Task: structure prediction
Amino acid sequence: MLKDTAAAVGALCVDPAAVGGHDAGQWLWDRWVEPVLPASPTTPVHPNAAGQAAVAAMARNAPGRQLSSCTTGVVAPADRGACHSAVGRGRSCRPA
Result:
């Protein structure tokens, strides 16, 4: 669904889940997502610092560099203003 939303507004989508071996069930030094009882300062079942850095690197290296992450629901088309906030509130976004 988020990939479709990104495509609809002309944004790219990076998917950290496509890179295996970094889920919450992995060793502390391998995981990008913390389990229900986190070992690092973050919200349970959310990206830790390594996961955030990995997503940032994926976005930085993606062609067009217009989207940070699919799993967070952040869709950032070329104009990041009102469109970005609308998508964050669950509304559709159509570029002007």
The first helix runs from residue 2 to 8. The two ends are 22 Å apart (CA to CA). Residues 45 and 52 are 13 Å apart (CA to CA). The chain has three helices and no strands.
